Structures are given as C-alpha cells and as structure tokens.
Fold this protein.
Amino acid sequence: MTVTISWEGSAASDMFIIPSIFEPCGLTQMIAMRYGSIPIARKTGGLNDSVFDVDDDTIPLEFRNGFAFSTADEQGLNNSLERAFNLYRNDPESWQKLVQKDMTVDFSWESSAAHYEELYAKSVARARATIRA
C-alpha cells in the first residue's frame, strides 16, 4: 500500500497537508477535495470554515470531510497524520466513502448564494413576526 501526500501544491494525492499559521480564505483544500485528496488542515481562517474533522462528534456526520488540528506545532500535525494514516490503512471502505463525499462537496457561489438567500428569508420572516406580535 502506498499513500501519496501533497504539501500545499499539487493534485493527484491521497492526502493534502495544509499546516497554515493563518489562512485568510483557504482555496487549496477546496481544490484538493474536488480531486479526491483528503485535507489535513490546521483550524484557522477559511480552513476552519471548510475542513471539518472526521472524528469531531460535535459536527454532523455529513459535514465531516478531513482531518483538522488546532495547535500550530509538530504534535498537532502528527496527531492528524496518524489518524489519517490509520483510517487509510485500516478502513479502506470508510476512506473511499470519505473521498467520494469530498469530491461531491459544492463550494460554488451558486450554492453559497442559495444558503444566504435562505438565511435572509428566514431573518425577514422572523422580523415580520416580531413586528406583528
């Protein structure tokens, strides 16, 4: 079994490491996921908004899409790598499901705009209900 890892820069890998100290928007993980490369990212900026740890029980299962770590140090990165390698080696079926799920995540502006429109409509409805009360 061979695992291919990319360090912030190329496609055609099984995992994509993004150990950023700061990340204002975070597009690399979105590109990696589109091509089936599982992100291993530090929780910061746009990465924190789009990479949700597979082992985080506070996140709904359908949104968990990678491996995340909080501390910007070797221990945080190594822990995430170890968990990723463990899943890759010991549960290939779950790994493939994760890859397939990541490849179908819709990060398009159309999807984002639809979510904002829905949020806006709910806010307007709440405001109108409050005014009537």
